[in-house]
Amino acid sequence: GAVVSQHPSRVICKSGTSVKIECRSLDFQATTMFWYRQFPKQSLMLMATSNEGSKATYEQGVEKDKFLINHASLTLSTLTVTSAHPEDSSFYICSARDPRKGNEKLFFGSGTQLSVL
Amino acid sequence: AQSVSQHNHHVILSEAASLELGCNYSYGGTVNLFWYVQYPGQHLQLLLKYFSGDPLVKGIKGFEAEFIKSKFSFNLRKPSVQWSDTAEYFCAVTNSGGSNYKLTFGKGTLLTVNP
Fold this sequence. Notes:
The complex is a heterodimer. Chain A is mainly beta. Chain A has no helices and eleven strands.
């Protein structure tokens, strides 16, 4: 069964609005979660690393003020796309690292398809 | 910066055919290599991984991959595919230094197995 839950699976919003995506680890405490974005026929691109209790680390070229990440608890990280625009339309996916398993394995959420009109 | 190249965007096979999906990476240091699979409507899940040791690694469902350091390759193989292997396959790499476990993915290869 799924060990990482991501919600919502699909969201359509108007340009200029903000959208929040949640990522939950279900049976382990995830000190670290990762947020990826995937454009059609492109690879998953790491956007940021979310660390519980501290600021997220963003990859080069990712606007931290536009993609707000909050990792307030050991089982929840949220990604908020602020003032979304059509070019933000993409598939967003989170993953969580189970610290009991070292860096051997990441667990992925089912993804969120964001469409900005 | 590391990168991953998957040579085939879409592979179509008949059941019982043999499979080999190419994956090359570019990174100068020591790497950890992964193959992930995403079945239709399901999450990404780990198929197999290479950290060190025997360069021929065996994963779930009869898949295996061989790490060839001199070729910077980590090709995925299966001797006889089944219809249920229809999925998208992603090769990924992370450098093995320190605690870096951020994955760099390839673009993925869609495998369609016809019954």
